């Protein structure tokens, strides 16, 4: 029975650690949603609304950009805390940033690489989409929304995307991928974590769930490959953070594949053809993965260099 939970070294199996991390994060997120919904409902009831009207108002507020940012930041913060708790309490190890891929070697170079990759993927996605007609430019945020909404979106977008870039890369690549690669090889670890990463995203809101799932898995493989090739999370954090920020706060396409359009982004596009644009996004991400494989090399044991000479 003990073998069901622990390996021959007495350490908890990676599968159970994964379940604790992912299910714990999901349960925390659901509980936080319920708490905030309950508070908002009672506030509206105290203002004289009937219960059903109060719940409807609370639901409308919860769907806004600001509550979504608050929920995401708390959930990702909890995910990071849970990683630290597993390392210290379950694995009985000292928490060390460098063991999660956050060492200082080549940090600036890795961050620069991630930024360049994020800019390239964004320009290709929106540029090609505009040229082939899957995207139509609607206008800039200051003309479409109030100035305050645009500024709030740009500021809150920084918080949201840094939280997601930092929290998710630590949890999925820095922790889970590292632990799974100790049991299997790097390729298997990258694929397993990419699938888990994709399943943690809201597939139920996608216009094409299977295409969204495939794209999310490919994104996870891109992040995982970047971590393996650079031996650092800094490139992935930079890519994850800036890429999300550009798509949420700077450029945004309404009616996109995942159905999201929050806040008041700086430049707004309309998605004219969801399926072709979803295929375009998949192709651009695939090009990004090929670019990473071409421009980096697998490091040898003890080797810290990351780019091809």
How would you characterize the overall build of this protein?
The chain has 2 domains: 1-95, no CATH class; 97-309, no CATH class. 70% of the residues lie in helices and 5% in strands. The protein is built from 11 helices and 3 strands. It has a 3-stranded mixed beta sheet with strand order 1-3-2. Helix 2 crosses helix 3, helix 4 (65-90) runs parallel beside helix 7 (147-183) and helix 8 (186-199) crosses helix 9.
Short description:
The protein is mostly helical and 309 residues long. The protein has helices at 2-5, 14-46, 51-62, 65-90, 107-132, 141-144, 147-183, 186-199, 209-230, 234-250, 274-295; strands at 135-140, 251-254, 267-271. The chain has a three-stranded mixed beta sheet with strand order 1-3-2.
């Amino acid at each position: 029975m003990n073998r069901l939970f622990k390996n021959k070294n007495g350490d908890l199996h990676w599968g159970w650690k994964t379940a604790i991390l992912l299910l714990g994060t999901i349960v925390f997120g659901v509980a936080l949603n319920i708490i905030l919904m309950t508070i908002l409902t009672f506030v509206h009831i105290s203002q004289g609304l009937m219960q059903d009207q109060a719940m409807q108002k609370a639901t409308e507020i919860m769907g806004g950009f600001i509550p979504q940012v608050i929920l995401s930041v708390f959930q990702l913060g909890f995910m990071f805390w849970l990683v630290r708790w597993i390392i210290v309490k379950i694995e009985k190890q000292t928490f060390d940033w460098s063991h999660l891929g956050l060492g200082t070697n080549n940090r600036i170079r890795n961050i620069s690489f991630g930024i360049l990759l994020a800019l390239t993927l964004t320009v290709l996605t929106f540029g090609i989409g505009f040229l082939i007609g899957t995207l139509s430019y609607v206008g800039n945020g200051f003309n479409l929304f109030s100035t305050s909404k645009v500024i709030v979106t740009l500021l809150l977008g920084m918080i949201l995307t840094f939280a997601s870039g930092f929290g998710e890369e630590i949890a999925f690549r820095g922790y889970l991928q590292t632990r799974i690669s100790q049991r299997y090889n790097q390729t298997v670890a990258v694929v397993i974590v990419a699938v888990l990463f994709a399943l943690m995203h809201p597939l139920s809101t996608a216009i094409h769930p299977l295409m969204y799932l495939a794209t999310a898995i490919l994104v996870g493989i891109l992040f995982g490959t970047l971590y393996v090739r650079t031996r650092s999370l800094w490139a992935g954090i930079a890519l994850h953070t800036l890429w999300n920020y550009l798509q949420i706060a700077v450029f945004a396409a309404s009616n996109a594949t995942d159905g999201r359009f929050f806040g008041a982004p700086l430049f707004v596009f309309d998605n004219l053809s969801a399926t072709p644009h979803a295929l375009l996004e998949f192709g651009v991400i695939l090009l990004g993965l090929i670019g990473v494989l071409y421009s980096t090399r697998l490091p040898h044991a003890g080797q810290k260099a990351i780019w091809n000479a």
